[in-house]
Amino acid sequence: MRRTAICLAASSMALSLSACGALGVSGDSADASPTKGNDITVGLLLPEKANTRYDKFDHPIIRAKVAELTDNKGQVAYANADASAATQSRQMQKMIEDEVDVILLDAVDSRAIAADVQKAKDAGIPVIAYDRLAEGPIDAYISFDNELVGEVQGRSLMAELGGDVDTSTKIVMMNGSPTDPNAKQFKAGALSELQGQVTIAKSYDTKDWKPENAEANMAEAIEEIGAGNIAAVYSANDGMAGGVIKALEAAGVTELPPITGQDAELDAVQRIVTGEQYMSVYKSYPEEAEAAAEMAVAKIQGKDIKFDSLTADRVDSPTTQDIPAQLVPVVALTRENIKDTVVEDGIYKLSEICAAKYEAACEEIGLK
């Protein structure tokens, strides 16, 4: 993916979009003559339910931001495909038939949805690819810098393995779904840090990102490699990390190797507290979701200056070149910065993270 003018962060410090100059641009009064008023409908198509972020964060944040931007007159028509490309195609077709004003699309299968993106284009409905870069004539794209996500995961894994690591050190790679273009970028970023430094003993592209599929893959890897010979596991997200841990524990492993993740799910943050999972990648869903809502409203209301200020980057998909885009920064989440990231940003309360059986572990690492 070609990228220009990107502001990135891969440290333990949270970074707001204002540092990239993406937000805080007014452009509301003199941008252009609005083509629509506040009485608009934003179609929101999200891909699956295995990852809790979509229903817990993305949908409610986008709905609230659209309402805020439209004096509570704008609506969000929401559908979740539950990992079915066929279901998402039907959902998108219904939104086209219902004549929504703009569609935010997080594709289950980026290639399969291209024909539906073309149908929306033919119907005069702009499509903004959200979180995953769909193919077809999309109007804009917003996501995180996915290769950087993989780089952060790979770099963190190498740092935790320490100075004694060499090319004989064996790791397992649990990559994401082969139908998700983001998964390919996470994998490429991770390989840029791992390849040539360690031996990738087994690598899996995990169908539908499902934890149970990751668990089955990991059980196979353990049988072939031997649990004691696996120094670390690259897991592309937190849900799969949970499946990996189940397989290791079922194999009798009591001292878990370092395991990566992504999405900063509550279960994963708690596993980081207890030491079961080494790290996750925190992606600020409020920043991404709010910016996506702003982008959608600006697009349909004809506020070109506002829209341009939100899409200063450019990316290419296999079918479309020079797509206006915004790539949001990411943060490596470890024990050391839980309070400075997910707690400070209001994603979780300390009382949620440190509930019940996690209370003692939280106290042990000074998380109070």
Q: What is the gist of this entry?
A:
With 368 residues, this protein is of the alpha/beta class. The protein is built from 13 helices and twelve strands. The protein has helices spanning 53-69, 85-97, 114-122, 146-161, 181-194, 211-225, 238-250, 266-274, 285-300, 304-310, 339-343, 350-353, 359-364, and strands at residues 41-46, 75-80, 102-105, 127-130, 140-144, 170-175, 199-205, 232-235, 280-283, 313-315, 323-328, 330-333.
Kindly describe this structure:
This protein is an alpha/beta fold and 368 residues long. 39% of the residues lie in helices and 16% in strands. It has helices spanning 53-69, 85-97, 114-122, 146-161, 181-194, 211-225, 238-250, 266-274, 285-300, 304-310, 339-343, 350-353, 359-364; strands at 41-46, 75-80, 102-105, 127-130, 140-144, 170-175, 199-205, 232-235, 280-283, 313-315, 323-328, 330-333. The protein has a 7-stranded mixed β-sheet with strand order 2-1-3-4-5-11-10, sandwiched between helices. Strands 7-6-8 form a 3-stranded parallel β-sheet, sandwiched between helices. Helix 3 (114-122) links the parallel strand 3 and strand 4 (127-130). Helix 1 crosses helix 9. It is globular. The chain starts with 40 loop residues before the first strand and ends with a helix.
